[in-house]
User: Which sequence fits this backbone?
């Protein structure tokens, strides 16, 4: 088993530091370039049995660009790999969200923030449950590419590292089109690559 997880390319809302959630935001020009570049990198390094992507617009566009760069097979799209649903707070900047509603900030409120549910949205614990259900559904003899979002990546990385979820959310980062690679280990999983964008510097 090899699971490669990639965050989607940049959007204008990423650049503006807005909570996207389930918003149908498209990739920016920079994001489209990032998706093509990571697709070229993945096509040269891996042979995938399956490609899975979140069904939101920005991940669909990223997966399509990756496929156009030479990655096979065609992607299938799954809701359980979506970003967290921020409900009524979707569209706010991160600064506004965490200044006005610190109960949602893991950095300010600690583990209690994991269970707080925004109106018409989902908690971080809800997000982790559905994402790890998707992770557990991947067969142990497959090489799989997953195109997803920052929120799901934090959930999977904390699981693979057997690390505290709140700590990973507060201290780790995931850049647009960063590559993460997970493989089985004797005592669980090994995170072989995390938030890797070094391929962009390759000749």
Assistant:
């Amino acid at each position: 088993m090899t699971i490669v997880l990639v965050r989607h390319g940049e959007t204008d809302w990423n650049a503006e530091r807005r909570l996207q959630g389930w918003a149908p935001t498209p990739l920016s020009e920079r994001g489209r370039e990032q998706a093509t570049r990571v697709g070229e990198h993945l096509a040269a390094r891996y042979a995938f049995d399956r490609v899975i992507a979140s069904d939101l617009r920005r991940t669909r566009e990223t997966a399509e660009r990756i496929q156009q760069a030479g990655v096979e097979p065609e992607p299938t799209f799954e809701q359980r790999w979506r970003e967290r649903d921020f409900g009524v707070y979707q569209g706010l900047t991160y600064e506004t969200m965490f200044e006005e509603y610190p109960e949602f900030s893991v950095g300010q409120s600690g583990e209690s923030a994991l269970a707080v549910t925004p109106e018409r949205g989902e908690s971080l614990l809800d997000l982790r449950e559905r994402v790890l259900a998707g992770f557990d559904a991947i067969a142990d003899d497959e090489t799989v590419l997953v195109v997803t979002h920052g929120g799901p990546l934090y959930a999977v990385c904390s699981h693979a590292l057997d690390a505290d979820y709140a700590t990973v959310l507060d201290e780790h980062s995931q850049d647009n089109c960063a590559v993460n690679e997970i493989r089985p280990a004797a005592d669980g999983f090994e995170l072989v690559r995390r938030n890797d964008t070094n391929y962009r510097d390759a000749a």
Notes: Helices lie at 12-15, 29-45, 57-68, 94-100, 106-109, 124-136, 150-161, 165-171. The longest helix spans residues 29-45. The chain is about 35% helix and 20% strand. Strands lie at 2-7, 50-54, 76-78, 143-148, 179-185, 188-196.
